[in-house]
Design brief:
alpha/beta; TIM Barrel; 8-stranded parallel β-sheet; 9 helices; 8 strands
Length: 266
Amino acid sequence: MKYFDAHCHIQFDRFSEDRTEVIEKMQKEEFGGLVVGVDMASTRAAVELVQQYPHLWASVGLHPNDTPEEPFDREAFLRLAGDPKVVAIGECGLDNYRPEDPEQEKERQRRVFIQHVELALETDKPLMIHSRPKKGTMDAYHDLIEILGSYKKDYGEKLRGDIHFFVGGIEEAKAFVELGFTMSFTAVLTFARDYDEVVRYLPLESILSETDAPYVAPASRRGTRNDPFAVRDVVEAIAEIRGEDTEKVRSTILANAERVFGLSGL
């Protein structure tokens, strides 16, 4: 395998017309991927989809505010997490981006996130975390660091995972590295310079590449549906920003994915 997309949603309807073609092309061109659930329906679809393909795996969870009315069904997620093709718990986390959300919504998100953390520890799987702070702040990251830090004291290296679509600064990146988490970056790096400093700061071993497909296409395809092939653009952007050899960056990020998600022989 050459590339690994650490976070994509190819089970979503926007791939309904050409999903098989995209997946078969991924396999032919040596792209692997983690298909991430955001609610029970998309989680079940992800788990079902990856059974058919050796280069795909799944993550099971409930997005913090995509479907706020959906309760966290711990027993159902626990059963799904027992599937050998399920290698992470999430997409889960804290999302403070909408200022109109009441305090009880933040409390609900916190409670559900803690349930995901405890499920990850019980099943010994890494977390796939979504964290979006309120505009102009890093509040969701700071709350996240507090929660993860409280569990880290008791569980050590068993608590691990990835901070998906990382948009924090150096202070937050440093805290997540100390907690043993990686941070993944998207094709935003191909058209925005906001995260260059943190990409240069991070140890290469703490970086993953992702697409969040079907969202956030790279500069060369802005305004179109994204797909897992954009992870190559992400790797090239990381290498350029860091001033490092592209092949070194590619192979290290691939090894990082293998380590974080417990995959063998990528």
